[in-house]
Amino acid sequence: MALGKLAVLLWRAFSAAQITEAEADELSNLIEIRKVVPKAPPEPHRKAVGSRPITNSSLARRRRWASSGRLPPALAALFTQGEAAVLAVIAETVVRHGDCRHCNDFIAALAGVSRSMVKNALRQAKILGLITVEQRRLAAWRNDTNIVRIVSPEWQAWNRLKRRSIPEGGGVKSVTSSNTKLINRGKKRGLRGQKGLPKRGRRGRKNEPDENRTAEYDLKGTAQA
């Protein structure tokens, strides 16, 4: 309600004897003081800056990339979880294609972080001498995506040891197979030394007596007698 309308209602109530003169004077003084004090300006609308809103999906991607093992443990301890996720995305791309040429927005979307987090991770890794960033200028006001390469010997050796992750959309599970050729050769060699033994389920040699045949002859001789 405006202060002018409030003052009108105040004196109307005083004329109707609803409030005393002392109360009317006190309320009138408060209204005048409020008119003198300037009204606080409204707060300007602040533009949303900083990290992107953390959703369940983006937080899951950040944790998954940070724990993917694309960084050696000694190097991963130098970065935050978001920065480690960014560097893991870059390492995966370098392993597949030799370098990383993705834009910052694309890396941020994959790692579940903001664009500023990608810049901070690249800046910190460059200061530590882990990567090199090549800028490609096309025109005075236009640049192509940067080329990020891993130059740390420790990180390069780690990437060679790590297997490539299974691409999205499925894959096959690798099973450690045995060398069947060597096993078959070993079986053949073992059987060669056992040629003199009779095979199971077959009769013996011709010169060896057959117990069943001998018993049959004895029965025939007894019957004829």
Task: Report on this structure.
The protein has helices spanning 3-15, 21-36, 56-66, 73-76, 81-97, 104-111, 115-127, 153-161, 180-192, 211-224, and strands at residues 131-139, 142-150. It is mainly alpha-helical. β1 (131-139) and β2 form a beta hairpin. The radius of gyration is 44 Å and the shape is rod-shaped. The relative contact order is 0.07. The model is unreliable at 165-175 (pLDDT under 50).
- What is the helix fraction of residues, given as a range? 40-55%
Main beta sheet, described?
2 strands, antiparallel
Strand content: 5-15%
Count of individual helical segments: 10
The count of strands amounts to 2
Mean pLDDT: 75
Distance between the termini: 142 Å
SSE diagram, text form:
Elements: H1 3-15, H2 21-36, H3 56-66, H4 73-76, H5 81-97, H6 104-111, H7 115-127, E1 131-139, E2 142-150, H8 153-161, H9 180-192, H10 211-224
Antiparallel strand pairs: 1-2
Helix pairs in contact: 1-2, 3-5, 5-6, 5-7, 6-7
Characteristic key phrases:
225 residues, mainly alpha, two-stranded antiparallel ribbon
Compact summary:
The chain is built from 10 helices and 2 strands.
